[in-house]
Specification:
By secondary structure, the protein is mainly α. The longest helix is centred in the N-terminal third of the chain and has 20 residues. It has one domain. It is elongated, with a radius of gyration of 19 Å. It has seven helices and no strands. Helices cover 54% and strands 0% of the residues.
């Protein structure tokens, strides 16, 4: 009986803590800034980038339902902020990274990252899609 009470108290404390962290505002902005300038790309290249890259590397992020629940919201917001700071398809003139570096990341499978592909299976790029994306960005 004592173990049941202790477990019940632990669950109650866990639920209270979970409810309290929902009050932390970080990870709740979900505001996409305006698009400034996109690359000079064709529709096919843009479609590939949209499905595999835009959520973290553009100002057109689609915020999934779980991005509203802390602590997951904190991770999602952090990933989007970091992704946009490294390369942003919506502010292409200030991308900061050479095309060769971007191409290397895509070709070697570093982008999109594994944790993103787990939640977004459509983001897994075929070899042909990787080549199309790399060639389309090089224009």
């Amino acid at each position: 009986m004592k173990i049941a009470k202790i477990l019940g108290l632990i669950v109650l404390i866990g639920l209270v803590l979970f409810a309290l962290i929902q009050l932390v505002p970080y990870g709740r902005s979900h505001k996409n800034p305006p698009v400034v300038q996109e690359p000079n790309w064709d529709a096919q290249t843009r479609a590939i980038a949209k499905k595999a890259c835009f959520d973290c590397h553009s100002n057109e992020t689609v915020w999934p339902w779980y991005s509203n629940i802390a602590p997951i919201s904190w991770l999602v917001q952090h990933d989007v902020e970091e992704g946009r700071s490294k390369m942003n398809f919506s502010d292409w003139g200030n991308r900061g990274r050479p095309i060769e570096e971007i191409a290397s990341e895509v070709q070697e499978g570093g982008m999109p990252p594994g944790q993103y592909k787990l939640m977004h299976p459509a983001a897994k790029l075929t070899e042909a899609e990787k080549q199309t994306l790399i060639q389309g960005l090089g224009k």
